[in-house]
Amino acid sequence: MLQRIKAQLNKGFVRNVLLVAGGTAGAQAITMAFAPIITRLYGPEAFGLQAAFVALLAVLLPISALTYPIAMVLPKDDRAATTLGWLSLTLASLLSLLLFLLLVFFLEPLALLLNMSDIQPFLWLLPLALWLAAVQQILSQWVIRQQLFKISAHASIWQALILNISKSGIGLLTPVAGVLIWLSALSAGINAAIMWLGLRFTTKLKPAAAAHHSMASEPFNDSTAVVGAGYASRLIGKTGSQFKDMLHLAKAYGDFPIFRAPQVLLNAISHSVPVILLGIFFGPAAAGFFGLGKTVLLLPATLIGKSVGDVFYPRITKAAQQQQAIRPLLLKASLLMAAFGLPVFALVMAFGPWLFGWVFGEQWQQAGEYARWMALWMFFAFLNRPAVAAMATLALQKSLLYFELSSLLLRLLALYLGFVVFASDLVAVALFSILGALVNLLLVLYTLAKANAHTGR
Question: How far apart are CA 247 and CA 242, in angstroms?
Answer without folding.
Answer: 9
